[in-house]
Specification:
Helix content is about 40%, strand content about 20%. By secondary structure, the protein is of the alpha/beta class. It has two domains: about 170 residues, Periplasmic binding protein-like II (D-Maltodextrin-Binding Protein, domain 2, 3-Layer(aba) Sandwich); about 100 residues, Periplasmic binding protein-like II (D-Maltodextrin-Binding Protein, domain 2), CATH 3.40.190.10. The strands form three sheets. The chain has a six-stranded mixed β-sheet with strand order 1-3-2-4-11-5, with helices on both faces. A three-stranded antiparallel β-sheet has the order 9-6-10. It has a two-stranded parallel ribbon with strand order 7-8. Keywords: Signal. This is Transporter substrate-binding domain-containing protein.
Amino acid sequence: MVKRCGLAGLFLALALAGSARAEGKQITWSVFGAAPYTIVDGENRDNGISDRIRRLLTARLPDYSHFTMLVPFPRVLASLKSGEEWCFVGGVKTPERESFAVFSRPVAMFYPLRIVVRAENRARFEALGPLSLRNLLTEHRSLRTSVLRDRAIAPAADALFRQYPPSQTYSEFGEAFRMLLNGRLDYLVEFSSIATYHAQALGAPDAFVGLPFAEENQEPVFPRVMCAGTPWGREVVARIDAVLAEERASPAYRSIVEAWAAEADLPRIRAVYDSFLASD
């Protein structure tokens, strides 16, 4: 069961975790709503890509007590920095994060990255010429965008957002797509599967289009399990890597990685699956 983490709930969960730690090994799986990777409500609850991977790992690590905690993403990072015995399925490895977390082999892929706009505005953006995020952030500042606080998307996009930060940030994906749908944002930089899922969740499956742009990732971005960078975390990640080595080539695991992908993206995902298997 996924528990929502108010302050009282957090203290209770940590107390329970402390009790479990006294009795044996434990993992607190932190969850942040990022459908279709982690789905925290609705009819597809707990059936996202990262959710299914988390259940697989939980089943394969029976000697650990497992707790699941729903928290904002900045709280995930703060807990890892403080050395809590927490793990998160779906973290992107960056040099900054490697200073406080340890990462498993890749568990899935984020691909392809797009400039997502309302369908009615497609011609407006295409008229700007070959799309460039740099140009949008420097020459078209009146076009409004937003980013998730503390998120790592892809190296080129991350560098541009650091250099030219948008004037606003958001705390959860549904909020951003509602703002885009309602005209309070003009575009988002987002992965195709995430945009497709949220359009359907908003009851407007044809509301958004994803446009290629110059700085998009030509290779997939690989999310991983990230755990606290402690001896405990390194031990857990070693166990996780052993499970992934056995599972990632199986048809069942492929079906997890491909779940929720747009039909048009499946050939691209399948074409790079071998590089996913070879990655570490």
